[in-house]
Design a protein that fits this description.
The complex is a heterodimer of chains A (about 300) and B (about 350). By secondary structure, chain A is mainly α. Chain A is built from eleven helices and two strands; from the N terminus they run ααααββααααααα. Chain A has a two-stranded antiparallel sheet. The longest helix of chain A has about 30 residues. Chain A starts with a helix and ends in a 16-residue tail after the last helix. Chain B is an all-alpha fold. In chain B, strand 1 and strand 2 form a beta hairpin. In chain B, strands 1-2 form a two-stranded antiparallel ribbon. Chain B is globular, with a radius of gyration of 21 Å. Helix content of chain B is about 70%, strand content about 0%. Classes of the chains: A mainly alpha (about 300), B mainly alpha (about 350). At the A-B interface, helix 4, helix 9 and helix 11 of A face helix 5, helix 6, helix 12 and helix 14 of B.
Chain lengths: ~300, ~350
């Protein structure tokens, strides 16, 4: 096989994986903490993407950096709103939450369709993101690394690092881990679990919004852009193990590579099917994912 | 069932049987189509309402049943020795091996049952053997149907891709475009629905049915009593899959086509929500919810397509928030079904309290 093609596919897979990772982070956090699956999570990516589009329209491509706080805050606020109005009322009923949030995702998609039209809107990247590094000479002659994709990979590494610090080094993170392990005991020891749920949900939504910025840089934003990512983001959570940032990272990169490589050999549609067969096979070996949270409880939802 | 309920049911049944005599062509076709779809909702009632497994991938089994029949109908409509038109357009030179046996009607009809049963059995075995539960099952089934739909859409030459299989002529020698056909198909659908309802109601009343409820309400306790919950879950999953497959085959006959768009992720979730609206734990609730929901959808979505999507989204949220047991749950308050124990939801304090 041509090494240039192979490495090109792997690099593309890595950039897709980095967006998947950011999308899965929020899902894994809220699922680990509250045991809810948010089907509208993909729409937070979409919102981030559209906010990036609006920022580039109003401010021009050079103010791209403003899109990050805008996308983060916009999605986080929307997430907080969803938590207060729907999710909070369905606590302890994960399957019902799944259905209700699917309804929310329908509403958000239709709203986007009416506001921005059903065809994708393009985001112009600033000049310094337009180029690419090209390898000259040697076995990899002609291999290109587009700046945009490098930027997206760097961005997700940055967010991942920030999340790791927040969860493992801050007081807030300690509370999150405590509630994750035992909600009742943490609550008895003075952690305001309701407020923590809200904050974590908003944080996860905000991170999805940032992922939406990366998404908007790679391809036009359309109303179903989030829906296209959401199933694979779920698979990342399932493979990585619920609530594990490390597991999510490993699973995202693994899934990204598998998709990129199988797409290189076969068609996109067959690649999706193969990926799924591999995931189901993997779950036979490790039903709780790569890095399961250990527990002595008899039943876990 | 109360005496009033039985009387109302008999009235509805008589009305449905006589419907072809007083309904116009379009309403009759719509009603028949919706009744065909409601067979799949019986399956959702069994696996979700009774066994507590929320499958979002019923489209997979629905599609397998539908495509099994559609392949036969397509071959029946193609002159002997020739290839189906879409294969010719896509440069396929010989009939693919898995199409060949579908030339036989008995084989195709058998496959309408066997393919969904095999698929459901395999998927169920892979999941429940390793005790994959709750939202994991929902996600995996949803991903499965997505993979299936993506593959169907991408395989132009084998499955006609996103266009779907269409242009049917005859079935078992009956002209599908003949004048008598719509009525005949309507009654056939009603008959199959009646059989499916009676059969499922009987199954749920046996000890097997009680064990499904036991698995739903406390899987571990059922295991400790010496039963294997995985076996019961797989059995329920197969039953639900077969019902979806039959539903898909009938629906294909009604619509005269089947395509990936009909069986995707949205289909599976919509199916579940209509059942939730009617009452997931009640057969009548499931069927009634789906039939009335689909009829309303037809009316409203043709009048205001944009508003319909908002309305449906809001309905999803409201049904779950306000009526977790659906309309049937409101009507039959006597058997106040425990909300928290249904659908595989376990209390966090379940173990410690021994409850």
């Amino acid at each position: 096989m041509d090494p240039v093609f192979l490495f090109g596919q792997l690099f593309t897979g890595l950039s897709v994986a980095s967006i998947l990772l950011l999308a899965a982070l929020g899902l894994a956090l809220s699922f680990g903490l509250m045991r809810v699956i948010n089907m509208a999570h993909g729409e937070f990516l979409m919102v981030g993407g559209y906010l990036t589009y609006l920022a580039s329209q109003w401010l021009g491509p050079d103010f791209l950096w403003l899109a990050f706080p805008l996308a983060f805050l916009g999605s986080a606020l929307l997430g907080a709103l969803l938590e207060v109005t729907v999710i909070r009322r369905l606590y302890g009923r994960p399957l019902d939450t799944l259905l209700a949030t699917f309804g929310v995702s329908l509403i958000l998609q239709q709203a986007a369709r009416q506001l921005f039209g059903s065809t994708g809107v393009p985001v112009t990247a600033p000049g310094w993101l337009a180029g690419a590094f090209v390898v000259h000479g040697g076995a990899l002659d002609g291999l290109t690394f587009p700046h945009v994709r490098l930027f997206v990979i760097g961005l997700s590494l940055l967010v991942l690092g920030g999340m790791w610090w927040l969860l493992n080094r801050s007081r807030f993170g300690m509370h999150v881990r405590a509630v994750n392990q035992n909600r009742e005991v943490a609550s008895a020891l003075g952690v305001n679990t309701r407020r923590l749920d809200l904050l974590v949900f908003a944080l996860g939504s905000g991170v999805a919004g940032v992922a939406g910025v990366g998404l908007a840089l790679l391809a036009p934003v359309n109303p179903t852009v989030g829906a296209a990512y959401i199933v694979n983001a779920f698979l990342v959570v399932v493979v990585g193990g619920v609530g594990s940032v490390l597991g999510g990272a490993v699973a995202a990169v693994g899934l990204g590579f598998v998709t990129a490589l199988t797409e290189g050999f076969t068609s996109v549609s067959l690649a999706q099917a193969i990926l799924l067969v591999l995931v189901v096979a993997f779950l036979q070996w490790k039903p709780r994912g790569l890095f399961p949270t250990r527990s002595r409880a008899l039943e876990e939802t | 069932m109360s005496r009033g309920g039985a009387a109302a049911l008999a009235l509805v049944a008589v009305g449905l049987v006589l419907a072809p005599f007083f309904l116009g062509a379009y309403p009759l076709a719509l009603l028949g189509r919706v009744l065909a779809l409601s067979i799949a909702s019986i399956g959702v009632c069994v696996i979700w309402g009774r066994t507590g497994i929320l499958s979002l991938g019923q489209g997979l089994f629905f599609g397998l049943g539908g495509y099994a029949l559609a392949m036969h109908l397509k071959l029946a409509a193609t002159p002997r020795g020739e290839l189906p038109d879409f294969m010719v357009y896509n440069g396929v030179e010989a009939l693919p091996w898995f199409w060949k046996p579908f030339a036989s009607a008995p084989f195709a009809l058998g496959m309408v049952l066997v393919l969904p049963a095999l698929a459901a059995g395999l998927v169920g075995w892979l999941m429940f053997r390793r005790r994959i539960t709750g939202v994991y099952v929902s996600i995996i089934t949803q991903a499965l149907v997505l993979a299936f739909v993506t593959w169907l859409g991408g395989s132009q030459g084998l499955t006609s891709g996103t266009n779907g299989i269409t242009d049917f002529q005859t079935f078992l020698g009956i002209n599908l475009r003949g004048e008598a056909f719509p009525r005949g198909l309507y009654w056939a659908t009603l008959l199959v629905l009646g059989l499916a309802l009676a059969g499922t109601a009987w199954v749920l009343r046996t000890p097997f049915g009680s064990l499904l409820t036991a698995v739903r309400d406390n899987e571990n306790r059922t295991r400790f009593l010496g039963y294997n919950p995985a076996a019961f879950k797989i059995a329920a999953f197969v039953l639900g899959g077969v019902l979806a497959g039959v539903s898909g085959a009938l629906y294909t006959l009604h619509l005269g086509t089947i395509s990936p768009a009909m069986i995707g992720v949205a289909f599976g979730i919509e199916l579940v929500v209509w059942v939730a609206l009617g009452g997931r734990a009640s057969l009548w609730g499931a069927v009634g919810g789906l039939v009335l929901g689909q009829l309303a959808k037809d009316r409203i979505s043709s009048a205001a397509p944009d508003a319909w999507l908002y309305l449906m989204g809001a309905l999803f949220v409201l049904v779950v928030l306000v009526m977790p047991q659906g309309v049937a749950g409101l009507l039959t308050r006597r058997r106040a079904a425990p909300v928290r124990s249904s659908a595989g939801i376990k209390e966090v304090g379940n173990v410690a309290s021994g409850d």
